[in-house]
Design goal:
The structure holds 2 protein chains of 2 kinds.
Chain A lengths: L2 E4 L8 H7 L1 H15 L9 H20 L9 H25 L4 H6 L6 H27 L11 H25 L2 H16 L14 H4 L3 H14 L7 H26 L2 H4 L1
Helix pairs in contact in A: 2-6, 3-4, 3-6, 4-6, 4-7, 4-8, 4-10, 6-7, 7-8, 7-10, 7-11, 10-11
Chain B lengths: L4 E12 L1 H6 L3 H17 L7 H4 L1 E13 L4 E6 L5 H8 L7 E7 L2 E4 L12 H11 L4 H15 L14 H13 L5 E5 L7 H16 L3 E5 L3 H7 L2 E6 L2 E6 L1 H13 L4 E3 L8 E10 L7 E3 L4 E9 L3 E12 L4 E6 L14 E9 L7 E13 L5 E15 L26
Parallel strand pairs in B: 3-7, 3-8, 5-6, 6-7, 12-18
Antiparallel strand pairs in B: 1-2, 1-4, 8-9, 10-11, 11-13, 13-16, 14-15, 14-17, 17-18
Helix pairs in contact in B: 5-6, 5-7, 6-7
The chains are: A mainly alpha, B alpha/beta.
Chain lengths: 272, 423
């Protein structure tokens, strides 16, 4: 027989076990968000392809054709698209999880479940988008007559890194947005300039050597560099000190994000 | 361990008023407030912190000790704000207690609202799965009960229609059907039977009875005394966050009725972050300004209200409405009625108003009071800023007339003394 003890300031000890118990709810909410997003749209799930492809075309035109930035030995569209994939995953997760608690306020004030499910759902829906967009990448590679090398095997690990960066950041804004709705306004703004301060439209090797470590303080720099390294193959190099710094920072953001989220989780129902 | 549920001195504090406003919902306000208090701390390092005095704490629930045996069906009753729903929220782990502990032994389901998690864009079928998952059912469990749920809801033919096209009755039926097929050992229910039409309510109550007969433990919050007495074998009466009485349904419900009779004629409303203005207190006072829920037909009395205006309100109207208990409006009085200006504005700050109701106007009987503040605040459109609906009842009584000719028992809602002239 299960026993529940309720007491003030109870520490949640079994975060992962509880999440496992509620895995079906996680699945159902993800499924709901996916269905609802494309209800009454004409092209439906194709939007998951159209958005990154159009962004890729525009960034290629602006950075590759107009600004004539170098892309090494890879075609510019591939350079951009390999970065577009993790970037869209990050921005999708981050911006949806910012509102994930407030837009489900009714569920939070009327039922119990681990609240982390809501930002996690935001990540899972973005993951679905990511996988669909990823299939296009292979078509593009075939078009350019390229073939991925062994490095693609590292991609799942990089995906975990991307998930930690986006969910970690998402947990912070989700929890803060419960009390301070300012964050709902700030997030789209961050996403707007984030696209330009992260090396999405250009290669991070363009950043002068002495600034690269500083540049790597942006966790997405590590993730994007890693993706390019794994996907583009050939001559692509990775700036190791920067990658290590970005990775450490991502891990820090993720675990502090979880701690922060669980610390304030108890008060969500009262404040929201 | 023989009990199903046990609470030890459960208490819950809500922080209201100034504290919440100081923290704000807006980052700028918080930063400014933190900044100024930091500056003050630097300037007067030994001065007492103001923040503690600005904090107003309010025990929504205090020292609740309750033991429920397996199979017991306990009804929680009490007036609005007495704490019964707060207790249910704590037991269902939605909110955290400030003090005390509670133990629950068994699978718990909380039903605080029907249709939580329903999404208007999804079809009835999809919502059954979603809502079931929200209520804690597994996918297999939902699949197994799916046909039963559909049959109970009586909406078979609309199963694949988005629920946004449902009538409100269909929506409620579907939502309750899912909830009714929960299979917990302890069921926490908050006032969910007050929805749907009468036939469906009866059906729901029947279902609850069936669940109860199966030996489940039920904690049931309701204002519907008929449902409480039918369903529960023990009733607990709450008042101002404490348990004041418990025992068999008949006697405790009597005690509740008695409690409802002797209200003080005054109601202090909880802080609730209304934009622009907030009604903080309403009341009825006799001619000497003393709060009383019973006034005399032959004496003047006053309707009283106190509100806080957060920001200056333009084109403001404060209106008081007196209604009979069945909801018929007797009159509406506005603070602008006697003003002869084009515009009316309310400055920021606290505001008290009294409306004199002359003697020999309302006839003997029971009435209730509505209050509303309308206006333009912070550049927004003119809208209702705060309102209170029938939260306060009062009674007008006959207590010895001034004139021997005026006697009791006259029909009518009003009883004016009108001048007669004879030609």
């Amino acid at each position: 027989m299960s026993e529940i003890i309720i007491e003030p300031r109870k520490r949640v000890r079994h975060i992962w076990r509880e999440l496992w118990l509620y895995r079906e709810l996680l699945f159902f909410i993800t499924w709901r968000d996916l269905i609802v997003r494309y209800k009454q749209t004409v092209i439906g799930i194709a939007w998951s392809i159209v958005r990154p492809v159009i962004t890729m075309v525009i960034l290629t035109l602006v950075f590759g054709k107009l600004a004539k930035l170098p892309s090494g030995d890879v075609p510019y569209p591939l350079l951009v698209y390999a970065a577009m994939l993790p970037w869209q995953f990050f921005s999708g997760t981050f911006s949806v999880s910012a509102n994930s608690l407030t837009s489900n306020a009714n569920m939070i004030s009327k039922t119990y479940f681990p609240r982390i499910i809501l930002p996690a759902t935001a990540m899972l829906t973005s993951l679905v988008d990511f996988l669909i967009a990823f299939s296009i990448y292979f078509l593009m590679m075939a078009w350019y007559g390229m073939w991925p090398d062994w490095r693609i095997a590292v991609l799942p690990l990089l995906m975990i890194l991307a998930a930690m960066a986006s969910l970690g950041a998402g947990l912070w804004v989700a929890a803060l947005n419960v009390t301070y709705r300012d964050f709902a306004i700030v997030v789209p703004f961050i996403m707007q300039f984030g696209l330009y301060i992260s090396p999405v439209g250009f290669s991070s090797s363009l950043v002068p050597e002495q600034w690269r470590l500083l540049y790597s303080l942006n966790p997405m720099v590590g993730v994007i560099d890693g993706f390019r390294w794994a996907l583009l193959g050939g001559e692509t190099r990775i700036f190791m000190p920067g990658f290590v710094l970005s990775t450490c920072l991502t891990i820090l953001i993720f675990f502090l994000g979880i701690r922060f989220f669980y610390k304030f989780e108890r008060t969500f129902a009262d404040i929201i | 361990m023989t009990c199903a549920l046990k609470t030890e001195n459960i208490g819950k504090i809500y922080t209201i008023g100034h504290m919440q406003r100081r923290r704000g919902r807006n980052l700028r306000e918080t930063l400014v407030a933190q900044g100024t208090s930091l500056l003050q701390g630097l300037r007067h390092p030994f001065a007492q912190r103001r923040s503690s005095s600005a904090t107003e704490e309010f025990w929504a629930l205090r020292d609740i000790c309750l033991t429920v045996e397996p199979g017991e069906r306990v009804g929680l009753i009490g007036r609005n704000g007495a704490g019964k729903s707060t207790l249910l929220k704590i037991l269902s782990r939605i909110t955290e207690p400030t003090a005390g502990r509670a133990f629950l032994y068994g699978r718990v389901s909380a039903l605080l609202q029907v249709g939580t998690g329903f999404h208007p864009e999804l079809t009835g079928r999809e919502n059954i799965f979603l809502n079931g998952a929200v209520l804690g059912m597994t996918r297999r469990e939902i699949l197994r009960k799916f046909d039963e749920i559909v049959a109970f809801s009586e909406i078979e033919q609309f199963l694949d229609t988005p629920v946004k096209r449902y009538s409100s009755g269909m929506y409620v039926r579907l939502a309750f059907a899912v909830a009714a097929h929960l299979d917990p050992e302890i069921l926490l229910v908050d006032e969910v039977l007050a929805v749907g039409d009468l036939a469906f309510q009866t059906k729901c109550l029947g279902r609850m009875n069936k669940v109860a007969e199966e030996g489940r433990t039920i904690i049931f919050v309701s204002h519907n005394m008929a449902a409480i007495s039918r369903l529960c074998n023990r009733v607990v009466l709450f008042e101002k966050g404490r348990i004041v009485r418990q025992g068999d349904p008949e006697t405790v419900i009597q005690a509740y009725y008695a409690q409802a009779e002797q209200t003080s004629g005054r109601l202090v409303l909880p802080a609730d972050f209304k934009a622009g203005a907030q009604i903080e207190e309403i009341g009825v006072t006799d001619e000497n300004g003393l709060f009383s829920s019973i006034v005399k037909v032959h004496r003047d009395f006053f309707l009283y209200m106190r509100c806080r205006v957060h920001e200056k309100i333009n084109r403001a109207t404060i209106s008081m409405t007196v209604l009979t208990l069945d909801g018929t409006t007797i009159f509406v009085s506005r603070h602008t009625d006697a003003l002869h200006t084009e515009t009316s504005e309310l400055p920021a700050g606290d505001l008290c108003a009294r409306v004199r109701i002359p003697a020999h106007f309302l006839n003997t009987g029971s009435y209730s009071l509505n209050l509303q503040i309308i206006g333009q605040s912070a550049g927004k459109d003119r809208a209702v800023l705060d309102s209170v609906q029938q939260a306060l009842n009062f009674r007008v009584e006959e207590t010895g007339s001034l004139s021997p000719q005026l006697n009791a028992g006259r029909a009518g809602v009003v009883t004016p003394i009108l001048p007669w002239s004879f030609e």
